[in-house]
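Anyone able to model this chain together with 5-amino-5-deoxy-1-O-phosphono-D-mannitol?
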Amino acid sequence: MCGIIGFTGNVDAKDILIDGLTSLEYRGYDSAGISYFTKNGIQTVKTVGKVSILKDKVNSEHSADATKCGIGHTRWATHGGVNKTNAHPHRFGRVTLVHNGIIENYTELKEEFAKEGKTPVSDTDSEIAAMVIDSCYKTNPISAIKKAVKKLVGAYALCIMFDEHPGKIYAIRKGSPLVATSTKNGSVIASDMVAIIKYSKDYFVLPEHHIATITAKSIKINDLDSNEVEPDMLHVNWDMTAAQKDGYEYFMLKEIHEQPQALTNTILPRIKDGLVDFSADNVPDSLFDGINAITIAACGTAMHAGLIGKSLLEKYVRIPVTVEIASEFRYKDPIVDEKTLVIIVSQSGETADTREAINIAHKKGAKTLAIVNVKGSSIARESDYVLYTHAGPEIAVASTKAYIVQMAVMYLLTFKLAVLKNTLPTNNVRKLVSTLLTIPDYVDNILSSDKVIEKISKRLVNAESLFFIGRGLDYSLSMEGSLKLKEISYIHSEAYAAGELKHGTISLITDNVPVIAIATQKDVFSKTLANIEEVRTRGAFVIMVTTSDAAVNVSLCDHILSLPEIDDAFTPFGAAVMLQFLAYYTSYAKGLNVDQPRNLAKSVTVE
Ligand code: M6R
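re: yes, here you go
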C-alpha cells in the first residue's frame, strides 16, 4: 500500500523517481508526488491521480530543475481524502517526507501540536509524522528520527529529507517494507524490488527499527543504539522484463500467461526421485513430527489457495485443517497449540493481518511455515520456515500467477505429508507427483481457450449480479472466481456451495442472472448437475466449467467450458485459469483499468 522511492546519486534524480513511481503505481494510485533538492532548497510537485499526470507536470513545469537527490510517493489513501494537499511528500518545518503505513496515534499528536499553535495543512497522519520529526530536530537527523519514533505508534516506512542535509535521505521502517541498494550511479530505496530491478538484482531489506543514511556513495545502517549494522544482501532471479508489460495491454493478462513458467519454477526444483523434497528450502521433515492439526491463515486470494490446501490435506493426509481469514484469526483466541502447524500464505509477504497471525501462532507455541512469493519479505523473515513460490513479481492488483503457485505448494505439501504420515502408498503418491509435474503443460494448453472466454464474457458485462457455484474443490474455486470477477469488473458476485443455494440464495435467481457453475469433480458431479437444473429452471444464464469427459446435456447450459481430461484432484489448476480469463475479459469489455481496480492496492500493509 503506497509506493515509496528515494534516490541520491550522480545522475538526474527526477527521471529515476518518476520511473520508480511508475513501477510502484500498483501499490496505490490516488495521487503521486516527488520532492527533491535544488540549489534553491527542496522543491515539491504533487498531483491527484496517476503518475503519468505527475510526469507531465514535472516535464512541463519543472524540466529545468536540476537535482540529484529526491523522494517520491504514490498514494493509496487511508487518512484524508484524495486531493493534492493530502498527496505526499509532506513537509513541515525543515522536514520533508514520504510515508507508507498508518500512524495510529496521530489524533492525539495533532491535539498536542494544536496546543503549541502548530497546525498541519493536510488531513493525513503522515504530515503529523513530519511534524513529530521536525519537533525533535535541531541539527542531527538521526537523533531527531530516534526521538520521533518513540512518539509514533503504528506502522511506517519513512523516507525523510532535511533542509540542511542536501544529497541525503534518511529512512526508517516499522511494519511497512523498504528495500535498498547502492550502485555506481547512486543509492536507491523503495517499497519493493520492482522499482530497483533496473539498477541491480542485489538488494537488502532495511531491518525494522533501523535507520538508513543514504548518500550517493553508500547506505549506512544503524540500529537505534547507534551500532552500525551490515544488512543481509539478497538476490532476485528475475529481471526488468518481468516487471514490464512486455507487449501485453495489461499486467494481469501477461501474468495469466506466465503461469506455466511460474508453476515449473515452483514445482520442479522440489521433486526428487519422484517424490517431494523440501531440503533445498531448509524445511526439515521433522517440522511435521507430532503435528495433529493444521491452521492456514491468509487473506483474499491467498486464503482461497488455503481452501484448496484444506481439501487436499484432509483428503490425502486425513489431518484436520482450519482455514482462517487472517483478520479474524488475529482477534480471536484461536485453538492452536504446539501440535498445530500454522501455515501462512501471502504473495507480498507484507499483508498486515496475515503477518500478525505469525505472532499469534508463535505465542501459542505453534511452528509457522510461510508460503510467500516475495523474497526477504516480513512474513518470510518472521516465520519459522518458508516455502517460496517462484511466480516472479506480480504487478496486477488481481492475483493470478501467485494464486496458482500457492495452490501448487499446497499440492507439494500434501504429497510430502502423505508420505511422512503414511496415509497413502508411496506408489500412489508417485503417481500424483507425476501428474503434478504435467500441470505446467496442462495450464499452457488451457491458455488457448481465451478467445472463447472473451466472447462469453461479453454476455456478463451488463449483469448486475452473478453467482458462482460448485462443490468441494469446485466450491473453493468458485470463491476465487467470484472474488476475481467482482474485484476488477465491479459486478456484484457471490460464491455458493452448490447445494446451499436452495437454502435462501436461490430467491435471487431470476431470468438471465448469470450463474457460473463449476462441476469438475466426478464424485459430486450428478449433485452439481441437479443444482444447475434448479437455477436453469428459474431462468439463469448458465456457464459451466467442467471436464471434457463429463456427460453433460448441452441444453442444461448456455455455454460449456471444457477442461482437458486429468485426475479430478488437479482440475483446480485449469478451472482457475478459465475463471481468471472470465474476470479479465469482463473487466476489459467494460473498459476498466484491469490492473488497477478502484479503491484497491496490491499489498495491504494496514489492518
Ligand atoms: O499479498 P497477499 O497474498 O498477502 O495479499 C492477500 C490479498 O490482499 C490478495 O490476495 C487480494 O485478495 C488480491 N487482490 C485478490 O486478487
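The pocket of 5-amino-5-deoxy-1-O-phosphono-D-mannitol is lined by residues 299-302, 346-348, 351, 354, 397-399, 483-484, 487, 603-604 (CB under 6 Å).
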